[in-house]
């Protein structure tokens, strides 16, 4: 599968089968993250792989924020990955000017996981609403790390189609003209 096909085919999968993701495939996903670019090549990330069902079931109970319908699917995911990052001293200058290199780096690495998972037929869903302090406590994450996001992963319960992984239809997207401006043509926001 080429990258553009994976981007077009990927959906937020929220209905997972209980089939475990094979260890070799988990390693492939983590390798995709490892190869991601990072600011000044700091690679200031850490990935917490959660496959213990008891811990996964505690995530929606203890740390997720949102309505029950939004967060309840997480308990059914056979795998969750927490994308963590260490705030590096070398990025202090960037933060002084309002640029969060650390968060950008972990977002890129997690997107590598998502695209690799899509190619392997594994569904994913980003989770950004959670109580960081409670999650760090649940996962025993050291103080020097922050958690940027969680990623629920699993094989979709519904069959995939040409339309999308897990048979999920594409959602509408804004047209390019509404999201792009180009200084060469004098366009403004």
Write up what this structure looks like.
The protein is α+β, with helices and mostly antiparallel strands. The chain has one domain: NADH Oxidase, CATH 3.40.109. Helices cover 37% and strands 15% of the residues. The chain is built from 8 helices and 4 strands. It has helices spanning 3-9, 23-34, 53-62, 68-71, 92-96, 101-119, 132-139, 176-179; strands at residues 45-50, 79-86, 123-127, 145-154. It has a 4-stranded antiparallel β-sheet with strand order 1-2-4-3, sandwiched between helices. Helix 2 (23-34) packs antiparallel against helix 6 and helix 3 runs antiparallel to helix 7 (132-139). The longest helix has 19 residues, at 101-119. It is globular. The mean pLDDT is 89.
Termini distance?
Answer: 35 Å
Percent helix, as a range, is: 25-40%
Mean pLDDT: 89
> How many strands in all?
4
Pattern of helices and strands: HHEHHEHHEHEH
Features:
globular, 189 residues, alpha+beta, NADH Oxidase, four-stranded antiparallel β-sheet
Brief overview:
By secondary structure, the protein is of the alpha+beta class. The protein is built from 8 helices and 4 strands, in the order H-H-E-H-H-E-H-H-E-H-E-H.
Annotate the secondary structure layout.
Elements: H1 3-9, H2 23-34, E1 45-50, H3 53-62, H4 68-71, E2 79-86, H5 92-96, H6 101-119, E3 123-127, H7 132-139, E4 145-154, H8 176-179
Antiparallel strand pairs: 1-2, 2-4, 3-4
Helix pairs in contact: 1-6, 2-6, 3-7
């Amino acid at each position: 599968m080429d990258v553009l096909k994976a981007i077009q085919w990927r959906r937020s999968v929220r209905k997972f089968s209980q089939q475990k993701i094979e260890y070799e495939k988990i390693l492939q996903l983590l390798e995709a993250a490892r190869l991601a670019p990072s600011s000044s090549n700091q690679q200031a990330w850490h990935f917490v792989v959660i496959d213990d069902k008891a811990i996964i079931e505690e995530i929606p109970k203890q740390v997720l924020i949102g309505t029950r319908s939004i967060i309840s699917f997480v308990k059914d995911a056979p795998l969750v990955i927490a994308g963590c990052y260490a705030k590096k001293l070398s990025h202090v200058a960037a933060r002084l000017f309002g640029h969060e290199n650390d968060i950008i780096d972990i977002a890129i690495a997690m997107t590598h996981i998502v695209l690799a998972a899509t190619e392997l037929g594994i569904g994913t869903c980003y989770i950004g609403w959670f109580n960081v302090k409670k999650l760090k406590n649940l996962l025993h994450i050291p103080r020097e790390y922050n958690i940027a996001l969680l990623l629920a992963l699993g094989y979709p319960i519904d069959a995939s189609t040409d339309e999308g992984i897990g048979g999920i239809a594409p959602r509408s997207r804004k047209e390019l003209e509404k999201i792009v401006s180009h200084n060469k043509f004098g366009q403004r926001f």
